[in-house]
C-alpha cells in the first residue's frame, strides 16, 4: 500500500539546489559538494553521488504538489511529479518585508520567513501591535494556505488592519479579528478575503488601552468536500467504516461526472404542481434550480461527503442544507458531526427545509437498474439486493454481497463487490469504483450477440496483484458466463434486454 508522505518529512527533506520536495528519483547524497542533497530534477547519472535510502520511501510514497500553497490539491506518485510540474507552473511573490522587489517562490515563502524574518512568522494566530513601529507584516500558515496579516498606524492614531491570502481567488476565505484587552475580548471585524475589501480601520477613540495592543484572528476556509478534487488517491488513510464512507466522494469524484456513470444520481420531477413551478432541473439532472424573485439558487440533494440522500423530510435519516452564496449543499448529520470533530466545518447559514415536498422528485437507482424511486423507497432498494442465483431467495445488504457468494455459493473469494445492471440494447462504457482500483466495463452490441470486456486501472494504490472477476446473469437470474480481466465474454442475444453483473476483486497470491 502506498504511503502518504507527511508534511513534516516533506518540508524537512528538500533538495539543496532547487529547494523542492524530494519527490523525483533518484535522490542522491554528495560528500564533497556544497549541495549535499539533490533530487532527481537536479542530479545527473555520472556526478559521483550516492543514491539515498530515501528512494525506497519515495518509490512507495504519495506526495503533495509543490504548489499546494497556490491551491493545487493533487496527490502524486514520484513518476507523475515531473509531468505535473510542467503543467502546474511555480509563481513568485514579492516579499512584503524585504526592501525592494525581493521575489520569492511561493512554495519557499515559509522557509524564507524562517531564515530572514523569524520574528514575523506567526506560529499562533495572535500578535502584538507595537506602537513604536508604524507598520508591520506577518506570515501565518493554516494547513495548506498562507496568509499575510499587516497593520499600519496613521498619524491621527487610527490603526488599519489588513488580511491577504496567497491562494487563488476561488478559495473562499474569511478572517475575523479580535481585540484582546485586560478584561475582555472584543470582535473588531470579519473580512471576506475573496472580496476586494480586505482591510478595516480601528479608530483611536475605540482603543481603550494606551499600551501595546494584542490582536487575535481566526481564519475560516471553504471545506475541501465542496470542491471536487482530481486526486487519484485518498487524502486520509481509512481507519474505520465512517472514514471510508466519507472518503468515497473525493476518491472517486473524477469519475462521477462522466457519461454513463451512476453517480451523482439523476433526478426526475414526478409531477408539476402549481407551487412547484419555481423549480427547474439542471441540464444533466443532477441538481435542482430554484428561483426566488430575481435570485437563482442551485440545490444539491446528495450529501456533499457520502453522496447519499439524507433530507429533513425523511424519518429514517437526518440532514440539512448549508447555504453558501447561491448554493445549497445538503449534508447528513453523521458527516456534519464527523467534520466538525476534525475542524473542517465553518459557520455557514444552515436551513432545515429548502424543498416543500421532496416526494415530488424521483431518483435513479445508483446501481443502474433502470428504475426510478421516490426517496422513501430509494434507501431500502439500494441497500438491500435480491441474490440473483436461481432458487436463492436471500435478501442481502450490499456490503455483505461478497461474503454471501463466498459462503453460500462458493463462487469467489471476494474481499469487496460491486453489483451493476446493464441495458444491452446499446453500446456503453461504465466505470466501477472499487476500493483500491477502478474498473472499466465495455458493452458492445452486435446483430446476434453482445461482447463484454473488463479492464482494470490501478488508480489509487500502487498494486499489481489485484484481479477482478465478474459473474453475469440474465433477467431470469441464470448464470450466462464469467468475466475475467482482459478477456472478452460473448453472450448470445435473446429476449433479454438487460443483464446483471456481479463483480468482485481479490488478491492474486
Structural commentary:
This is E3 ubiquitin-protein ligase. This protein is mainly beta and 509 residues long. It has four domains: 3-87, no CATH class; 92-221, Apoptosis, Tumor Necrosis Factor Receptor Associated Protein 2, Chain A, CATH 2.60.210; 233-245 and 263-360, no CATH class; 387-507, no CATH class. Helix content is 14%, strand content 36%. It contains nine helices and 36 strands. The protein has a six-stranded mixed beta sheet with strand order 19-20-21-23-22-24. Strands 9-11-12-13-16 form a five-stranded mixed beta sheet. A four-stranded antiparallel beta sheet has the order 10-17-14-15, with no helix packed on it. The longest helix has 11 residues, at 241-251. 26% of the residues are buried. Residues 222-262, 313-317, 412-417 and 458-464 have low confidence and may be disordered.
How many separate structural domains?
4
CATH class descriptor of the largest domain? Mainly Beta
Helical/strand content category: mainly beta
Strand content: 35-45%
Summed over residues and divided by their number, the pLDDT gives a mean of: 68
What is the gyration radius calculated from CA atoms? 28 Å
* Strands in their spatial order, largest beta sheet: 19-20-21-23-22-24
Uncertain runs: 222-262, 313-317, 412-417, 458-464
Number of helices: 9
Helix content: 10-25%
Distance between the termini: 15 Å
CATH architecture name of the largest domain? Sandwich
* Fold-level CATH name of the largest domain: Apoptosis, Tumor Necrosis Factor Receptor Associated Protein 2, Chain A
Which geometry do the CA atoms define? Answer: flat
Number of strands: 36
Biggest sheet, open or closed, and with what strands and sense? 6 strands, mixed
Protein name: E3 ubiquitin-protein ligase
Organism: Psylliodes chrysocephalus
Amino acid at each position: 500500500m502506498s504511503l502518504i508522505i507527511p508534511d513534516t518529512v516533506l518540508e524537512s527533506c528538500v533538495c539543496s539546489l532547487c529547494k523542492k520536495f524530494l519527490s523525483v528519483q533518484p535522490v542522491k547524497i554528495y560528500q564533497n559538494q556544497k549541495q549535499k542533497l539533490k533530487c532527481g530534477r537536479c542530479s545527473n547519472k555520472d556526478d559521483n553521488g550516492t543514491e539515498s535510502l530515501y528512494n525506497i520511501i519515495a518509490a512507495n510514497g504519495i506526495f503533495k504538489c509543490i504548489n499546494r500553497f497556490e491551491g493545487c490539491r493533487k496527490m502524486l506518485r514520484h513518476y507523475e511529479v515531473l509531468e505535473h510540474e510542467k503543467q502546474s507552473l511555480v509563481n513568485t511573490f514579492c516579499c512584503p518585508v524585504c526592501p525592494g522587489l525581493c521575489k520569492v517562490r511561493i512554495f519557499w515563502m515559509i522557509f524564507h520567513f524562517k531564515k530572514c524574518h523569524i520574528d514575523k512568522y506567526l506560529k499562533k494566530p495572535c500578535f502584538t501591535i507595537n506602537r513604536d513601529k508604524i507598520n508591520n507584516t506577518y506570515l501565518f500558515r493554516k494547513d495548506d494556505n498562507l496568509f499575510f496579516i499587516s497593520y499600519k498606524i496613521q498619524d491621527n492614531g487610527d490603526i488599519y488592519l489588513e488580511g491577504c491570502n496567497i491562494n487563488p481567488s476561488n478559495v473562499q476565505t474569511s478572517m475575523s479579528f479580535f481585540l484582546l484587552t485586560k478584561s475582555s475580548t472584543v470582535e473588531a471585524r470579519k473580512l471576506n478575503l475573496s472580496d476586494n475589501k480586505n482591510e478595516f480601520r480601528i479608530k483611536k477613540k475605540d482603543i481603550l488601552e494606551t499600551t501595546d495592543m494584542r490582536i487575535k484572528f481566526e481564519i475560516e476556509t471553504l471545506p475541501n468536500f465542496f470542491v471536487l478534487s482530481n486526486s487519484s488517491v485518498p487524502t486520509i488513510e481509512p481507519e474505520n467504516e465512517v472514514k471510508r464512507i466519507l472518503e468515497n466522494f473525493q476518491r472517486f469524484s473524477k469519475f462521477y461526472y462522466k457519461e454513463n456513470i451512476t453517480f451523482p444520481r439523476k433526478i426526475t420531477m414526478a409531477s408539476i404542481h402549481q407551487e412547484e413551478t419555481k423549480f427547474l432541473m439542471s441540464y444533466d439532472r443532477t441538481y435542482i434550480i430554484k428561483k426566488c424573485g430575481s435570485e437563482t439558487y442551485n440545490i444539491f440533494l446528495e450529501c456533499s461527503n457520502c453522496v447519499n440522500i439524507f433530507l429533513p423530510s425523511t424519518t429514517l435519516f437526518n440532514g440539512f442544507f448549508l447555504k453558501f452564496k447561491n448554493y445549497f449543499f445538503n449534508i447528513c448529520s453523521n458527516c456534519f458531526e464527523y467534520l466538525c470533530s476534525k475542524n473542517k466545518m465553518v459557520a455557514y447559514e444552515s436551513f432545515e427545509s429548502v424543498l416543500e415536498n421532496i416526494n415530488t422528485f424521483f431518483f435513479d437507482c445508483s446501481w443502474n437498474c433502470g428504475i426510478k424511486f421516490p426517496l422513501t423507497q430509494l434507501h431500502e432498494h439500494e441497500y438491500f439486493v435480491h441474490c440473483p442465483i436461481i432458487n436463492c431467495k436471500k435478501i442481502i445488504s450490499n456490503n455483505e454481497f461478497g461474503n454471501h457468494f463466498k459462503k453460500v455459493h462458493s463462487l469467489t473469494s471476494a474481499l469487496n463487490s460491486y453489483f451493476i445492471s446493464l441495458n444491452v440494447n446499446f453500446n456503453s462504457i461504465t466505470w466501477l469504483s472499487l476500493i483500491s482500483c477502478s474498473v472499466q466495463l465495455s458493452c458492445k452490441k452486435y446483430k446476434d450477440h453482445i461482447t463484454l470486456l473488463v479492464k482494470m486501472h490501478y488508480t489509487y494504490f500502487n498494486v499489481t496483484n489485484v484481479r477482478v472477476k465478474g459473474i453475469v446473469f440474465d433477467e431470469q437470474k441464470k448464470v450466462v458466463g464469467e468475466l475475467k480481466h482482459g478477456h472478452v465474454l460473448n453472450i448470445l442475444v435473446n429476449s433479454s434486454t438487460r443483464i446483471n453483473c456481479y463483480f468482485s476483486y481479490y488478491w492474486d497470491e
